[in-house]
Design goal:
Chain B: This is (2Fe-2S)-binding protein. Chain B: GO terms for molecular function: 2 iron, 2 sulfur cluster binding; metal ion binding; oxidoreductase activity, acting on the aldehyde or oxo group of donors. Chain B: Keywords: 2Fe-2S, Iron, Iron-sulfur, Metal-binding, Oxidoreductase. Chain B: Pathway: Alkaloid degradation; nicotine degradation. The complex is a heterotrimer. Chain A has 17 helices and 27 strands. By secondary structure, chain A is an alpha+beta fold. In chain A, helix 5 (about 205-220) packs across helix 6 (about 245-255), helix 9 packs parallel to helix 16 (about 700-715) and helix 15 (about 620-640) packs across helix 16 (about 700-715). In chain B, a hairpin with a 2-residue loop joins strand 3 and strand 4 (about 95-100). Chain B contains six helices and five strands, in the order αββαβββαααα. Helix content of chain B is about 35%, strand content about 15%. Chain C is built from 14 helices and twelve strands. Chain C has helices at about 10-20, 35-40, 75-80, 80-85, 85-95, 100-105, 105-110, 120, 160-170, 185-190, 220, 270-275, 285-295, 305-325; strands spanning about 5-10, 25, 45-50, 60, 65-70, 175-180, 180-185, 210-215, 225-230, 240-250, 250-260, 270. In chain C, the strands form three sheets. A five-stranded antiparallel β-sheet of chain C has the order 4-5-8-6-7. Chain C has a four-stranded antiparallel β-sheet with strand order 9-10-11-12. A three-stranded parallel β-sheet of chain C has the order 1-3-2, with no helix packed on it. In chain C, helix 5 packs antiparallel against helix 9 and helix 13 (about 285-295) runs antiparallel to helix 14. The radius of gyration of chain C is 19 Å and the shape is globular. Classes of the chains: A alpha+beta, B alpha+beta, C alpha+beta.
Chain lengths: ~725, ~190, ~325
């Protein structure tokens, strides 16, 4: 038996670099003569810049340039097709579209001097009163045009008839607040020009998009723009699109004639990278007496900006997940004087939360166990496309999850379970998210004369384990040991890959690696069977297998030859680059179970226990996959219990642009989390049976927490986050 | 910095006046004792991971920026620059602190340890090894701070239970969401270091 | 941060002489000052580093525990005498900030940390406390974390220090040194009410140096405890907090001192609540009466009305602990 390279819980191959401080993130890049840029942000939310006084800043020590819309070069606005979603470039005109929009850029020789000089830039505004409160402007809601992520007014069947025929109908309104990514690494651009050649060290989830956007902004040829991102300090969507600060940094670097480093401050990141837009959701879900869904009507209204109206809180689970003949999903927008919303880890979490919470409400109306309600509405088919999922073991997830959690011991009556000092609640929900359905990626496999392989692809590792699982995939296909394979990423000089987003890395990049490795392996096999001195001479190529660094006859494994011998005799390296093939869409699912403790006096909710069982096809690496799952669960704790960005209703400005007012979970908020996988290959996968997974595990958990709070207290808190003030108001 | 450029020295003086305009006060107090004050830059020496680094620094440079931007030790990370995330945690005389909240000039004469100073050659520190074994990180950006806090947490004796580890590791945020694995890493390292 | 001059002081007297200049400021741990300077909330031309002054010891003498102003939060929190005789102080210190910051922050600096009010912390927003007369956006804006008692029409920011709440309940005294010599300021008079001068926060004069804090050691203090309520498990400022010193004989409350955090612009001692307890049995009715007395003059705003029941519940929770421990 040869040792399989996938499936094992391999330690991260970038682990040593990360624990020794050797891993160089964008801001750590060594660039000779680098200078420092600091942005000056608009302090009003709407209006115009009437004057900018740059005299003090320009005269300050060490200052190399002060740039405003009056002296910054004109730049071309890159297109949404290269993920430049924002529809304007700041510092190009006097218009203020939102607070925290760059209005000036200061470059100085040291960071401290740039910071001090940025405080000397005097900006005068003609301010207009902003409108920033979603609830106040619900009357302005409209349905924006359709985008790649589906119709904004989706209908199947006849919802009115379905609701009329229902035995029970749950009608609910759920609201979710503005939230921010807060990757620990703030966005960074280090731009250096050499004549017309631009090199950028960038904290990005998509070096190809960054490269393309810079080409468009400056009118440069592809070979003149190089983007590097070997390590990324988290992204969660913040670094998925290309944002203006990247282009602006390159622009000022060109104008001062020195390399420039820009590190967004934590506060600036709150208005520079998008956010999870506030939502207002109305649901009507009808079911027959046996629990079968007869209709779902889901209307989501979310904040958009004055200049963009992309809707990122898509109602995907409503359309796809449950067997229901009559569905209407309407996604509406309300324009406000705020920055544009964007992707934030598992963007469908907001709509999943409302749907899965409403199903829990329905389960009580029907008197049906919430697990059973979901089992009865399970479908093997994507309900929107009508196509069968490649595989779906969701029912097995429910079953195993309930067993691991001990669900059968649950007394369903709200308020019925307690411990010494408080109320106990158990809740559950379905996790589900699409994975892939995005453009494909290329990879190059090079097999050296020493029989080792180097694989390159212009992808990124934002902490998900790309370095590790791509090496595993390559080793598995080639039949080499892990140490015989190297995987490099994060350089736009490598074959282009899709962004690290949309749970697409495994089906897009993974498939590219598999294709390239397969072709390279076949060429080595061809050499081995053609070589008269080879033990495999004359064998049919399809009778040759690989493993443990050798090629051998499938039927007679003792007849074998090492990669090293074959390649040494060949004397030249073999190199194969795969074509990018569109990555099929998978659906990764799971069942999540949560226990909460509620302090009946102080209203504090503590998550005590979590169980998640997931079906993401074959698991490439149990260690990194488990980490993705616990990460999603922890995000769900923040989403449900503590995270909300507050915007002053009069000033139109975010008042919590930090990590002390905006509360992400800390270690002490998080219990042990039990994660397991069905781990059965999806036959439709182009990546050895694996599906994308990253976004699935956050979905479901938020509703499971809210459902557990209801079970503990008998009160539904339909406005997130579930802070103690809401609990004590309900309990009073 | 190009301190050898004589014209730039002049600019610094002008700059002090510009700063004074902003704050409506001259830079130096008129007190005899103030003669010893560091006015624009001073030569300071920092002992980091056993090596003494001499730097020409302004007083306002934080220990974090001195490590990263001057000395070139970029393992220590800046996540918020306000003491709210813990990514910049280092040890000073064995105690964990946030290097963004102190001035480099204040840390002269102390033993500073950063993530680069944990391993002995190729031999990882038990905390580093435990973080790898338990997958105590994903993106790795908060990791240097987590590691320094973990070393201190073990030395302080705050590893009596998982709940105690959770509480005493809560000054370090991890946004990828590795907390249970960090707790497991600290638990294991504590066992090995005892 | 704007450039500044820096001097390391080795003697308190020298530090005080240097700080007579209004452009100078002391720096000890730096954990709040540097943030305020980075954000441009404060600008100082001269920082006097007092961290090396010999003011970092903790001693017990003459019925008091004398805390050096430069002792670190973490050291004081685990000091044997403090843990045994002033448990509320140890608990309040350990409830504050993070382990790293507790290793840096001095007690004196902790008392002088400034409000976390988001309008105060951003110098591009109006704030009467930072810029007298510029207005207070919190009154009609976002005030979830703001004061329900003791505020004014000029400022409703809350004081963030847990330590100050404990010291207020313990009736501590702040010792200082200035050009005029040493003096003592009782905690009760250390913080000024905002009134129409919210920018005047403490009784300290220009250049006056906190040298220490004296805490009386009493039977009452030995039975003390701290409760901090917040929106995440730890590493957060208080939404509300209670420092309670209660001495019982049988069921009857003989003595009580109560101070609250998160509800007022300064640590909030409630003698009304104390009086509602003293001489009465510690039962549900008494606790409810104390809670009612505490919030009798509460003036909640649009988003912080929840603090009125929450602080009463916190009081009831902590007093319940005394009942159970009896």
């Amino acid at each position: 038996m040869t040792e399989s390279q996938v499936g094992r819980p391999v330690s991260r191959v970038d682990g040593v670099a990360k624990v020794t401080g050797a891993a160089r993130y964008a801001a750590d890049a060594e660039v000779r003569g680098v200078t420092h840029a600091v942005l000056v942000m608009s302090t009003v939310a709407r209006g115009r810049v009437t004057a900018v006084d740059t005299a003090g800043a320009s005269a300050a020590p060490g200052v190399l340039g002060v740039f405003t819309h009056q002296n910054l070069a004109r730049l071309a606005l890159p297109s949404p097709a290269v993920a430049f979603l924002k529809r304007f470039l700041p510092v190009q005109d006097d218009l203020i579209r939102h607070a925290g929009q760059p209005v000036a850029i200061v470059v100085a020789d040291t960071l401290e001097r740039a910071q001090q000089a940025s405080g000397l830039v005097g900006v005068s505004y003609r301010a207009e009163p902003p409108r920033v409160v979603l609830a106040d402007d619900m009357g302005e809601a409209y349905i924006p045009p359709q985008t790649n992520d589906g119709a904004n007014d989706y209908v199947r069947g006849d919802v009115a008839a379905g609701l009329a025929a229902a035995h029970a109908v749950a009608e609910t309104t759920y609201t979710t607040p503005m939230q921010h990514h807060n990757a620990l690494e703030p966005s960074v651009t280090v731009a250096a020009w050499d004549g017309d050649r631009l090199t950028v060290h960038e904290s990005t989830q998509g070096i190809s998009n960054t490269q393309n956007a810079l080409m468009q902004a400056f009118g440069l040829a592809r070979e003149n723009v190089r983007v590097l991102s070997p390590y990324l300090g988290g992204g969660f969507g913040a670094k998925g699109p290309v944002w203006p600060h990247t282009v602006l940094t390159a622009a000022v670097a060109r104008q001062v004639g020195r390399p420039v480093k820009l590190v967004l401050t934590r506060a600036q990141a709150y208005t520079s990278n998008g956010h999870r837009a506030e939502t207002h959701q109305v649901l009507r879900v009808g079911a027959a007496r046996d629990g079968r869904l007869t209709a779902i009507q889901h209307t989501v209204t979310q904040q958009v900006s004055r200049t963009e109206d992309a809707l990122l809180n898509s109602s995907e689970p409503t359309r796809i997940l449950y067997a229901c003949p009559n569905v209407r999903s309407t996604q509406q927008a309300v324009r406000l004087d705020l920055p544009m919303g964007s992707f934030v880890r598992s963007p469908e979490t907001a709509t999943s939360h409302a749907l899965e919470s409403t199903l829990d409400e329905l389960s009580y109306t029907l008197g049906l166990d919430p697990v059973e309600l979901r089992v009865r509405n399970w479908s093997a088919t994507n309900q929107e496309s009508g196509e069968r999922h490649g595989s779906s073991y969701l029912r097995e997830c429910y079953e195993r999850g309930a067993e691991r959690f001990g669900w059968s011991r649950r007394d369903p009556r709200p308020g019925s379970m307690r411990d010494r000092d408080g109320l106990i609640g158990w809740g559950m929900a379905t996790a589900a998210h699409t994975a892939g359905g995005r453009p494909g990626s290329s990879a190059t496999v090079t097999i050296g004369v020493d029989g080792t392989a180097r694989i390159r692809s212009g992808t990124q590792d934002l902490g998900t384990g790309t370095y590790t699982v791509m090496r595993q995939l390559g080793a598995e296909v080639l039949g080499l040991r892990l140490r015989g394979v190297r995987f490099d990423l994060g350089d736009s000089a490598f074959p282009a890959a899709f962004a690290s987003a949309a749970s697409a890395t495994v089906p897009s990049v993974g498939a590219g690696v598999v294709r390239a490795a397969t072709a390279a392996r076949d060429r080595v096999i061809a050499l081995a069977v053609a070589d008269p001195d080879s033990p495999l001479h004359g064998a049919a190529p399809d009778q040759v297998s690989v493993g443990d660094g050798d090629l051998f006859l499938t039927e007679r494994p003792s007849r074998r030859v090492g990669y090293r011998q074959v390649m040494r005799r060949h004397g030249r390296l073999i190199e194969v680059t795969s074509e990018a093939v569109f990555a099929p869409m998978g659906y990764s699912v799971g069942a999540t179970f949560v226990e909460v403790h509620v302090d009946p006096v102080l209203g504090r909710v503590q998550v005590r226990r979590m169980v998640g069982v997931f079906d993401c096809g074959r698991v490439l690496n149990h260690r990194t996959a488990r980490s993705q799952a616990i990460g999603g669960a922890i995000w769900a704790i923040g989403f449900t219990l503590s995270e909300h960005t507050l915007v002053d209703p009069n000033l139109g400005r975010i008042v919590t642009p930090n990590l002390s007012g905006y509360l992400v979970p800390v270690n002490a908020d998080v219990p042990d989390i039990d994660v397991s996988f069905i781990d059965k290959p999806d036959p439709s996968s182009p990546a050895l049976g694996a599906r994308g997974f990253g976004e699935t595990p956050m979905t479901g958990v938020t509703a499971a927490i809210g459902n557990a709070v209801y079970h503990a207290t008998g009160h539904r808190i339909r406005d997130l986050p579930i802070t103690q003030d809401k609990i004590i108001a309900a309990l009073s | 910095m190009s301190e050898e450029d004589p014209t730039r020295r002049t600019v610094i003086k002008v700059g002090a006046a510009v700063a004074a305009v902003a704050t409506a006060a001259p830079a130096l107090p008129d007190v005899a004792e103030a003669k010893a004050a560091v006015t624009d830059t001073a030569r300071i020496s920092l002992k980091v991971n056993g090596v003494t680094h001499r730097q020409e620094l302004e007083a306002r440079v934080t220990l974090l920026d001195a490590l990263r931007e001057r000395i070139g030790l970029t393992g220590t990370k800046k996540g918020c620059d306000r003491g709210e995330c813990g990514a910049c945690t280092v040890l000073v005389d064995g105690r964990r602190i946030k290097s963004c909240l102190t001035l480099a000039v204040m840390q002269q004469g102390r033993e500073i340890t950063t993530v680069e100073g944990l391993a002995r050659g190729d031999a990882l520190h038990p905390v580093q090894a435990a973080f790898i074994r338990n997958d105590g990180f994903q993106c790795g950006f908060c990791t240097p701070g987590q590691l320094m806090s973990a070393v201190a947490c073990v030395h302080e004796g705050h590893t009596g239970s998982d709940d105690e580890i959770r509480e005493w590791m809560s000054g370090n945020l991890c946004r990828c969401g590795c907390y249970p694995n960090i707790v497991a890493s600290v638990r294991q390292a504590a066992k090995e270091m005892s | 941060m704007d450039a500044f001059a820096y001097t390391r002081a080795d003697q308190p007297e020298r530090a005080v002489r240097l700080a007579a200049d209004p452009r100078a400021r002391y720096i000890a741990g730096g954990t709040d000052l540097l943030n305020l300077m980075k954000d441009g909330v404060q600008r100082h031309d001269h920082l006097i580093d007092i961290s090396a002054l010999p003011l970092a010891d903790v001693r017990e003498s003459g019925g008091r525990i004398r805390l050096g102003a430069l002792s670190r939060m973490s050291d004081v929190a685990v000091h044997q005498a403090v843990r045994r005789r002033l448990p509320v102080l140890s608990q309040a210190l350990l409830a504050g900030a993070s382990p790293q910051v507790r290793n840096m922050a001095s007690l004196g600096g902790n008392l002088l940390q400034r409000t976390r009010c988001w309008y105060f912390r951003d110098p591009t927003m109006p704030c009467n406390r930072r810029e007298p007369g510029s207005g207070c956006p919190a009154l009609d804006g976002l005030n979830r974390w703001h004061a329900i008692v003791g505020g004014s029409d000029h400022c409703i920011a809350v004081h963030p220090s847990d330590l100050a709440v404990a010291l207020t309940a313990l009736d501590a005294t702040v010792r200082t040194l200035s050009a005029e010599g040493p003096r003592e300021i009782p905690m009760a008079g250390f913080y000024l009410p905002p009134g129409d001068t919210p920018h005047l926060e403490t009784a300290l004069r220009q250049g006056e140096l906190i040298t220490g804090i004296d805490v009386p050691v009493t039977e009452l203090a030995a039975g003390s405890t701290y409760l901090k309520v917040r929106d995440r498990a730890t590493f957060e400022f208080a939404v509300v907090s209670v420092a309670a010193l209660v001495r019982l004989r049988g069921e009857e409350v003989r003595e009580a001192r109560l101070a609250f955090g998160g509800i007022a612009p300064r640590p909030w001692r409630s003698e009304a609540a104390e009086q509602a307890l003293i001489g009465r049995p510690l039962n549900a009715a008494t606790i409810e009466a104390a809670g009612a007395a505490l919030v009798r003059d509460a003036r909640p705003r649009a988003h912080n009305a929840f603090k009125v029941p929450l602080v009463q519940r916190a009081l009831s929770d902590i007093l319940g602990q005394f009942g159970r421990n009896r």
